Amino acid sequence: MKIVLIANASASSVTARTRVVIQKALSADHDVELRETARRGHATRIAKGAAAEGVDIVAVLGGDGTLNEAANGVVGTNTALAPIPGGSTNVFARTIGLPEDPVHATAATLEAIDSGSIRSVGVGSANERYFLFHVGIGFDAAVVAQVEKRSHLKRYGGHAFFAWAGFTTWLQHFDRSSPHFAVEYGDGTVIDDGYFTIGLNTDPYTYLGTRPFTVTPDATLESPLSLVTLRSLGSVTLTRLMLSSLRNPDGVSTGRGVDVAKGIESARIHSETPFPYQLDGDYLGDVTSIDLRWEAEALRLVMPDRRHVPRPKEVL
Predict the structure, then answer these.
(1) Domain containing 292 — which CATH number?
(2) Furthest-apart CA atoms within the chain: distance in Å
(3) Phi-psi category of 251—alpha, beta or left, where left has phi over 0 and alpha has psi -120 to 50?
(4) Does residue 291 share a domain with residue 305?
């Protein structure tokens, strides 16, 4: 097969040696071309060009942001996407069963390619930009904005840095005194006091070390979106949400200060004043409205076999 390997050299786990090892492994039985990203949005252009050239697979060595960009370049084409984790959290790669180590993940990806494990999956879209695992609106996006202001610390601070950013955003950088937006569903239901909404295409929402934040297991690549909206940012509501996500395998449910909606194919989030949003951990700025949609079988994805993860020696 013809493969374009997109590498983000600035990603947390991507070193020159890692790139060489992975390119060598992929090249053993396939025609591989390495293309490195140079700026924001570059992976989308590379992936779109690869799809136009008829490339079979776009493999992405990088974090969730680079993977999201590449996905936006191949959605709706015959070119398949193959994640190889190289970032600080790698939510989507871990969700589909890949190990965190990029060399181990390459071995699992090669096995999937050789066995023909490529299938069409659903993706979400927000204002016509696609996301693989989630869109965060309001408070969640404000936290990501604070992280990106100090992006050089992500490589070294890890999950502790994200936790610090979340606390300082809640304390100083987000208005908790009044709601920020309304969520309107296709059946006419309106949640008019949203502070924080997560639109999930997969679950978990993210990971804390090795522990998943299980918000709603109903969010899968084969089913429409799940939306969870916080109608309060009080410490009790947030603590309850975090504890449920970490301890309860069934995730969170509708209750005081929380609204959970499942099987959502479309929704609109809107406000008279701008609110922030992020896709797959990539902060996209402030808007006054977001049109959410679920697109069935829009992306061809290389899927690893969760039952077997080859050892690194099988790659080298």
Answers:
(1) 2.60.200.40
(2) 58
(3) left
(4) no
In angstroms, the CA 16 to CA 3 distance is 19
Give me the CATH number covering residue 86: 3.40.50.10330
User: What DSSP assignment string belongs to 36-60?
Assistant: E--STTHHHHHHHHHHHTT-SEEEE
Q: How far apart are CA 113 and CA 124, in angstroms?
A: 25
Task: Output the pTM of the full model.
Answer: 0.90
- CA-CA distance, 67 to 47, in Å (whole number)? 10
Whether residues 99 and 241 share a domain: the answer is no
40: domain range? 2-123+299-314
Question: Total domain count for the chain?
Answer: 2
From CA 93, how far away is CA 4, in angstroms rounded? Answer: 18
For 92-135, the pLDDT digits (tens) are: 999 999 999 999 999 999 999 999 999 999 999 999 999 999 99
Strands 225-230 and 258-264, sheet pairing: antiparallel
Same domain (yes/no): 206, 305: no
Sequence letter at residue 293: R
Whether 290 and 161 share a structural domain: yes
DSSP 97-154: T--SSHHHHHHHHHHHHHTT-EEEEEEEEETTEEESSEEEEEHHHHHHHHHHHTGGGH
